Amino acid sequence: MAVLVTGGAGYIGSHTAVALHEEGREVVLIDNFANSSPKAVAAIRALTTDSMAMVEADLLDSDAVARVFKEHDIDEVIHFAAYKAVGESVAKPLDYYRNNLGTTIGLVEAMVEADVSKLVFSSSCTVYGQPDVIPVTEAAPTGAESPYGWTKYMSEQILSDAAAAVDLDVVLLRYFNPVGAHESGTLGEDPNGIPNNLVPFVMQVAVGRLEKLMVFGGDYDTPDGTAIRDYIHVVDLAEGHVAALDALNGRLSGCTAVNLGTGVGSTVLDVVRAASDAVGSPIPHEIVERRAGDIEKIYADPAYAEQILGWRSKRDLADMMRDHWNWQRQNPQGFA
Ligand code: UFG
């Protein structure tokens, strides 16, 4: 039996494929390479097995998806594939709703048809917006502030309704800010164009592709005035997915939302300092205006993940920066 990993060539999907293999699971990857590279698949196979199955298909193609379930013995699914750029989602909301909701609905229909009942879904702490209480627990109110965020919010609702109606058990994993890379330095994040996210931007400055980091906002109500996030090592995150599948095999049924974070809040300047230490030279940066739509501070209460999945993060910010830098240094142009 195998785990189907949608978006398996992407940043989190690829690291999760490796973690699943290490735990002895068979893996089938599916990706249309809309925002990823076949080279990531080669890197996954080099770290695991050349025989790892890879299907190149669009999840909106229901015939192709049905075929995957017919041709492989799949009994578990992890659904990563989605568009994920907040700003782009504001400019192209219909693309985001069609893709992110259509793929999720089509995938679950194919699962029901194939009698596959265990699903782990990539959600995001974006569903909390700016929480009133931090660390934020899974019981906090949810909503969204961008079409991207709404697709995560709506997907959670769709999956929760489906789990109540058909034979489907779901874990909704609400990720905080994934950074870092596989310790080998052969697998990592490779954003298209100029990175929107902090750590990929910092690392492209470090490697000389970008001149300096703009720190968005120095007047937040935080110890150094810059915004606070919960950065989590992508390999810890990957291991959280394995733990979620294990929990679905026995302990968990229905639809359960779980935070995947460390519980540690870091400011932008904390990240810049940790990156400078890893790189061994200062990261040029300048504090500028706040970025529209940014929240001031959020970090996870990770207690429920430990209780329900038996999982907690093991790697700290220094580990994240060391591994992200190791990847970027070895692959200045990513997979290109
Ligand atoms: N930041 C900078 N300069 C940059 C990029 C980011 O100062 O060039 C700052 C941001 O203002 C923010 C922090 O670094 O304070 C982290 O920003 P990211 O863009 O890396 O991450 P966000 O927390 O803003 O976004 C993440 C995910 C989104 C998700 C969102 C929910 O990337 O997918 O969390 O809050 F929607």
Summarize the structure in words.
The structure is a single chain. The protein is of the alpha/beta class. It has a domain at 2-180 and 231-262: Rossmann fold, CATH 3.40.50. 40% of the residues lie in helices and 18% in strands. It has 11 helices and 13 strands. Strand 2 (26-31), helix 2 (38-47) and strand 3 (53-56) form a beta-alpha-beta unit. Helix 1 packs parallel to helix 2 and helix 7 crosses helix 11. The mean pLDDT is 97. Residues 84, 86, 124-126, 148-149, 177, 196-198, 201, 213-216, 227, 229, 268, 291, 294-295 line the site of uridine-5'-diphosphate-4-deoxy-4-fluoro-alpha-D-galactose (UFG).
Topology (SSEs and partners):
Layout: E1 2-6, H1 11-22, E2 26-31, H2 38-47, E3 53-56, H3 62-71, E4 74-79, H4 86-91, H5 93-113, E5 118-124, H6 147-165, E6 169-175, E7 177-179, H7 198-206, E8 213-216, E9 228-229, E10 231-233, H8 234-248, E11 255-260, E12 266-267, H9 268-279, E13 285-288, H10 303-309, H11 317-330
Parallel strand pairs: 1-2, 1-4, 2-3, 4-5, 5-6, 6-11, 7-10, 8-13
Antiparallel strand pairs: 9-12
Uridine-5'-diphosphate-4-deoxy-4-fluoro-alpha-D-galactose (UFG) binds at residues 84, 86, 124-126, 148-149, 177, 196-198, 201, 213-216, 227, 229, 268, 291, 294-295.
